[in-house]
Amino acid sequence: MRPALATLPAAIVLSITGIVTLFAPEILLTHVLGTVLAPHPLVSMLGGLMFAFGYMNWMGRNAILGGIYGKPMVTANFVHGLVGTTSLWDLITPEAPLLAWGLLAFYVWYTASYGILMTRPPWKPAS
Fold it and tell me: In which element (H, E) is residue 15 found?
């Protein structure tokens, strides 16, 4: 799998979600997740984390990833995706807004992409 297929979309989605969550957490809580369960400072901290992961993915979009290459970045993204997927799975109800289901679908794809990068040898471009 070409690493940019995982890193570029992850960078864009995580950065946008992180910025929105960092500066306007009530938008994420009410309009996307349909709840106000978490206090705003914790949600803002999560936004900073998501923005940092987005920036890390942007910086690593052209790096060699897979096998032993880029293992800390790949592992961190995989664990973040796994925790995010299971957390959203528990939080989302059938009546949840469509954006919440879209976020869950992104996290499933995100986790699967980095799981593939973790278990495969590095991608080598054709010369």
Answer: helix 4-23
Q: Please write the tens of the pLDDT for every residue from 89-98.
A: 988 888 888 8
Q: Do residues 57 and 13 lie in contact, with contact meaning Cβ atoms separated by under 8 Å? A: no
Give 30's DSSP letter.
I
Nearest to 38 by CA among 23, 48, 28: 28
Distance in angstroms (rounded) separating the CA atoms of residues 98 and 106: 12
Q: What is the pLDDT of residues 59-71, one digit of tens each?
A: 988 888 877 888 8
Whole-prediction pTM: 0.83
Which residues is 66 bridged to in the sheet? Answer: 69
Report helix angle 71-91 to 98-119, nearest 10.
150
Cα 104 to Cα 86: distance, rounded to the nearest angstrom: 9
